[in-house]
Here is the input.
Amino acid sequence: MKRTIVVGGGVIGVCCAYFLAKRGSPVTVLERDNIGSGASFGNAGTISPGHPPMNRPVALKKAVRWLLDPVSPLYIPARWDPGLVKWLRDFRSNCTQERLEANMRVLEPLGHATRPLFDRLVEEEELDCDYRPGGYYEVFRTEHGREEVEAEAAMARAAGFRTEFLAPEALQEREPALKSGLLGGAFYPEAATCNPLRFVQELAERIQGYGGAVVTGSEAVEVLTRDGRVTGVRTRDGEIWESDRVVLATGAYSLDLATRFGCRLPVQAGKGYHRDRDPATGGAPPLNVTCILREYYVLCTPMDGFVRFAGTMEFSGVNHEIREARMAQLTKAADSFLEGVGDVESTSEWCGLRPCTPDGLPIVGPLSAPEGVYLATGHAMLGLTLGPVTGQLVAEWILDGRPSINVDAMRVDRF
Ligand SMILES: Cc1cc2nc3c(=O)[nH]c(=O)nc-3n(C[C@H](O)[C@H](O)[C@H](O)COP(=O)(O)OP(=O)(O)OC[C@H]3O[C@@H](n4cnc5c(N)ncnc54)[C@H](O)[C@@H]3O)c2cc1C
Here is the structure.
């Protein structure tokens, strides 16, 4: 039987491998570090069907004001990087209402598929990942915030997702940790949350249960080909892993693996931060449900034993340097919306790199040449949300020759 190597053990790679293994197809995941050690380690844990992609016209308007402010939700430190300059130019030209609506049409069927998939995976595979299918609130404290939340909720509704608007009193009744003075919020009942690292680790275990292999500490440095077909992968320690197909799911890293086939992936690393606080020590309120704090673009997600404050977007290249001022913004944001954000030590502080494309859509599908190479990256702020559906589609592409949802718009040859 034909074998697939999946390079990258983040949520995307693990989901691709899971669906291949579940269908009885031989698969090996090669991960250079530990499973879930990239962006999938510490994201905000929200599964947000109907959430618009990054290329929103409103982002562009704000970007000019935010750009060089080191504590704004978006930060691009000044540096010479021609790739980033081109990416920003392309991103700007994709921040139109038409492009956004076109992207929403592409993502709509994926969003509708993903939540039932999460429900099924968690139930059938008994994933112990703190899955909470209770929806989330997006709350605002200014008229401007209200306009933005309303516009996005309208877009989600037009794509068939449910939203409910709540006045401040109703909000506070449902989530007593919210401070008074907010102007309201939108509830997204189809959203869910989980502990993202546990989700990926648990799913990686299930791959092995279906006969797949998961190899950590193994970095792919070259995709090998013969006569226009993939033959395997070479790792940094010189080992050759033979295979008939290779899925590159390396997130914001190792973009050069595809470059030797003339395929330049226009992916930039969008750094985000998290700070976990333990409600038992007074660091955060014991939140019932996730709240997204609109004016700061910060997410506050309750997980087993802690509340995670996560967010911000920084384009400073592929590095894991933590800028204290940006980290501090997370607690400042939480403190201005929530009661009980005490000044205590965090249980975890982390930054991770989102793989971001300039047009707001992921890159999923086969390369036109060589035969047998598939890409699955560029999910930006929606990698956890779209992980299972991406994995299912890639497995269908490989095993059935075509995916059950048309995602041609996500193929790399659009660039
Ligand atoms: C602060 C923050 C909050 C977020 N919140 C959410 C959210 O609430 N909901 C949501 O849907 N998304 C969220 N995201 C986005 C989400 O985390 C990413 O889209 C997703 O994790 C991307 O998954 P990935 O598998 O493509 O990449 P990664 O998780 O980065 O995984 C890539 C893996 O590939 C490995 N790798 C790289 N190169 C090689 C190589 N050559 N050989 C072997 N292994 C290699 C890396 O070590 C890594 O483990 C958030 C991101 C951040 C930073």
About this structure: The domain at 51-192+268-356 is CATH 3.30.9.10 (D-Amino Acid Oxidase; Chain A, domain 2). The chain has two domains: 4-41+198-264+361-414, 51-192+268-356.
